[in-house]
């Protein structure tokens, strides 16, 4: 078993981006600028946004966090999005999800100017991705593709099962893997809560991507010997032995699954850092396009 090390892979990517930023600065241009809108006080979201800011600092990007109260109205958020759409100092921005219940996530995503949508969530960018046109690729699926690329993991002709059909992970993941690219050219099945014979289906996967949001859902009996397993899940579970009172648990029962795999990611240091690296790549692209 080999661990797919998102921390070191993303470090390489950040290094490459930092070199580009140095060149941008040498040309007398301003550095790329990413903004993140954070609504409410969700601990995990605050942590993710904090890490995104840290990444920006490391590569020499400017960053801005726009904080809004949990009680902010949907219209206030839409007004903020409209401001960011027209702010020439900002190359790209994200609205961290999940949003509070009283806000319609789709409505907010639709309000983002696709030219600044560095998450790759807008219909125009998802559509371009589906057609293989230049675009901002969804950050998490693209981060996983980058892991496959950098570890030379063959995807062509492989049966890939994507567990979960969310707009931000499962669905775009399936599109990217099935495209005529390298990595890509996989035979992809999207599985979800209504899928029958899930265990058998997962066992038939050469590559299993798990983004179902249920802790330790994938057990050893669901994994084929020699499979590549990518765990996108990250749930905070109370743990009094930890200083911060919780630990992160993935969607895969790592300890029991790992020895069956040729490659596997761990809940921390796996997909998360790669998602953030993709966001930096997209922000650099947004800056270059302008
Ligand atoms: N919440 C969890 N992952 C993401 C992401 O990649 N982008 C945004 N905006 N919110 C998220």
Report on the architecture of this protein.
With 290 residues, this protein is an alpha/beta fold. It folds into 2 domains: 90 residues, 3-Layer(aba) Sandwich (Rossmann fold), CATH 3.40.50.10860; 135 residues, Rossmann fold, CATH 3.40.50.720. Helix content is 40%, strand content 18%. The chain has 10 helices and 11 strands. It has a 6-stranded parallel beta sheet with strand order 1-11-8-7-5-6. The longest helix has 21 residues. The radius of gyration is 19 Å and the shape is globular. Bound molecules: guanine. The site of guanine has 8 residues, from β4 and α6.
Main sheet: strand order: 1-11-8-7-5-6
Q: What does the main sheet amount to?
A: 6 strands, parallel
Small molecules (ligands, ions, cofactors) in the structure: guanine
Summed over residues and divided by their number, the pLDDT gives a mean of 97
Tell me, briefly, the overall form. Answer: globular
Predict the CATH topology of the largest domain. Rossmann fold
Tally of individual domains? 2
The chain-level structural class is alpha/beta
Rg measurement, Å: 19 Å
Q: How helix-rich are the residues, as a percent range?
A: 40-55%
- The end-to-end span amounts to 44 Å
CATH superfamily of the largest domain: NAD(P)-binding Rossmann-like Domain
- Which stretches are low in confidence, meaning pLDDT under 50 for 5 or more residues running? none
The name of the CATH architecture of the largest domain is 3-Layer(aba) Sandwich
- Count of individual beta strands: 11
Supply the number of helical segments: 10
């Amino acid at each position: 078993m080999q661990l797919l090390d998102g921390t070191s892979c993303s470090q390489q990517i950040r290094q490459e981006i930092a070199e580009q930023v140095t060149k941008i600065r040498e040309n007398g241009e301003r550095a790329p600028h990413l903004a993140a809108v954070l609504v409410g006080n969700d601990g995990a979201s605050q942590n993710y946004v904090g890490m995104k800011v840290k990444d920006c600092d490391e590569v020499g990007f400017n960053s801005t966090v726009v904080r809004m109260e949990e009680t902010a109205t949907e219209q206030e958020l839409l007004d903020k999005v409209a401001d960011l759409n027209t702010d020439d100092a900002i190359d790209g921005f994200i609205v961290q999800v999940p949003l509070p219940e009283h806000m319609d996530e789709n409505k907010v995503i639709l309000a983002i100017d696709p030219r600044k949508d560095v998450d790759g969530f807008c219909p125009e960018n998802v559509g371009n991705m589906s057609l293989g046109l230049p675009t901002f690729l969804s950050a998490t699926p693209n981060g996983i593709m980058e892991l496959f690329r950098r570890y030379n993991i063959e995807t062509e002709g492989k049966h890939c099962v994507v567990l979960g059909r969310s707009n931000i992970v499962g669905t775009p993941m399936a599109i990217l893997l099935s495209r005529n690219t390298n990595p890509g050219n996989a035979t992809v099945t999207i599985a979800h809560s209504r899928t029958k014979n899930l265990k058998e289906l997962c066992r038939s996967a050469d590559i299993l991507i798990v983004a179902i949001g249920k802790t330790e859902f994938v057990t050893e009996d669901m994994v084929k010997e020699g499979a590549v397993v990518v765990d996108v899940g990250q749930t905070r579970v109370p743990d009094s032995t930890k200083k911060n009172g919780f630990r992160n648990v993935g969607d895969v029962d790592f300890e029991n699954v790992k020895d069956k795999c040729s490659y596997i990611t761990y809940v921390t240091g796996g997909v998360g850092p790669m998602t953030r690296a993709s966001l930096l790549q997209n922000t650099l692209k947004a800056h270059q396009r302008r």
